[in-house]
Amino acid sequence: xxxxxxxxxxxxxxxxxxxxxxxxxxxxxxxxxxxxxxxxxxxxxxxxxxxxxxxxxxxxxxxxxxxxxxxxxxxxxxxxxxxxxxxx
Length: 88
What we know:
By secondary structure, this protein is an alpha+beta fold. It contains two helices and six strands; from the N terminus they run E-H-E-E-E-E-E-H. It has a single domain (2-84), classed as SH3 type barrels, CATH 2.30.30. The chain is 23% helix and 24% strand. The strands form two sheets. The protein has a three-stranded antiparallel β-sheet, with no helix packed on it. A three-stranded antiparallel β-sheet has the order 3-5-4, with helices on one face.
């Protein structure tokens, strides 16, 4: 999972907003962002499922995080979320 909620919310809320990650791409959508193995500690080539943004309880998240995504990948994820949710 990729936490996308704002840091100030993450510190105060019991929930976080996340984008799921899958290692198998079942459907080819433009809002499934590929992430290569090794990036941010991922063991396999994976996909950020930007059409599946969800809010979950913090207790569902494993700590510590595997790693941090590079800025260009985060940018692709942001654009894919906007496309999936039809945001300007």
